[in-house]
Design goal:
The protein is an alpha/beta fold and about 325 residues long. The protein contains 13 helices and 8 strands. Strand 6 and strand 7 form a beta hairpin. About 30% of the residues are buried.
Length: about 325
């Protein structure tokens, strides 16, 4: 494993994370709330609140903002969150280190993802559930989650890099963790999708005519103008900076974005999926009206799309 963002020896990042946890605990106890009670109102798992208070788990800015509102702090937690160096030291798998460094420098990133939500858009709960499928040691899972979340922060701040991504609808439908994890993941997609530098589009499952890439794909532009095509196979990353190859993939990606749902239509679909997770496990008799309502929403979305599209085959890049 290769290390990045090593501490300067002062331990400032760790102290700041622990300080955030202490401040959160102070306001929570002042409000006479247990960790479980606060978690229920956020909502999140009680263990996440406990880990944040212990300074060993990284909260999102929305977590800090919600806690400010629930605990009446006057915005203290969000202001402190913005000052904390949450990732003074993280580790990525050796084969992924080069890609992680590109994420830390990229000025633009265009991506396609199938099957699971891409790492740059995953919530901590989703990432933990995903890594928990493959890793048995809790500390190793936690380290991999921290490393994954460390790549996200610069994309979700003011004036962050341009990030355009197309998700196969299966990313939303494939259950990772449980229904609550998926509901929060969908909510996170809706939240970051409203940022001015982020656009999330969905390739719907009922459109077999759309020519999807064979694998996850990223088109990366670095500050010096150098452009890379990145794809993955099992435990291996593949890089190509041939301008002709990049241009061919970029052209195919532009066509893909034109064929899939718009960002607004995609947000409507994600909202519908999120609502489905909210009612997951509900008795079939109680779901009749909900299913009918979602069907009507789906029909309305299709009415808003521009006229019929003629299926056509395109050569894969």
């Amino acid at each position: 494993m290769a290390r990045r963002n090593a501490e300067d020896g002062s331990g400032t990042g760790v102290s700041n994370a622990a300080l955030f946890g202490e401040v959160l605990r102070h306001f929570r106890e002042a409000a006479f709330l247990t960790q479980a009670a606060l978690a229920q109102q956020i909502p999140c798992d009680r263990s996440h609140v406990a880990k944040v208070e212990a300074g060993i788990s990284v909260p999102q800015d929305t977590f800090a903002k919600t806690c400010d509102e629930l605990l009446g702090t006057g915005g203290v937690l969000l202001r402190l969150w913005k000052k904390v160096d949450w990732y003074p030291e993280v580790e990525h798998p050796d084969w992924f280190e080069r890609r992680a460094q590109m994420d830390a420098e990229a000025v633009a990133l265009y991506a396609y993802q199938g099957h699971v939500v891409p790492g740059l858009l995953q919530t901590s709960d989703y990432a933990q559930a995903l890594f928990g499928r493959r890793l048995t040691k809790a500390d190793e899972v936690e380290e991999r989650v921290r490393a994954r979340l460390s790549r996200q922060q610069r994309f979700f701040v003011e004036n962050g890099p341009m990030y355009l991504t197309v998700l196969d609808e299966s990313c939303l439908r494939n259950m990772v963790g449980d229904a609550d994890v998926m509901r929060r993941q969908c909510k996170h997609l809706l939240t970051v999708g409203r940022l001015p530098n982020v656009r999330i589009q969905v390739a719907p499952l009922d459109r077999p005519d759309i020519d999807l890439p064979d694998t996850a794909l990223s088109l990366i532009t670095l500050p010096d103008g150098h452009r890379w095509v990145y794809s993955e196979s099992l435990d291996r990353g593949h890089f190509n900076d041939d301008p002709a190859v990049y241009q061919r993939h970029l052209q195919a990606y532009d066509v893909l974005r034109a064929d899939v749902l718009s960002a607004r239509e995609s947000a409507a679909l994600i909202s519908d999926v999120m609502e489905g997770y909210e009612h997951h496990g509900q008795a079939p008799a109680d779901r009749g009206d909900l299913d009918q309502e979602q069907l009507q929403r789906s029909k309305r979305r299709r009415l808003h799309r521009s006229g019929p599209r003629i299926p056509r085959r395109r050569p894969r890049p």
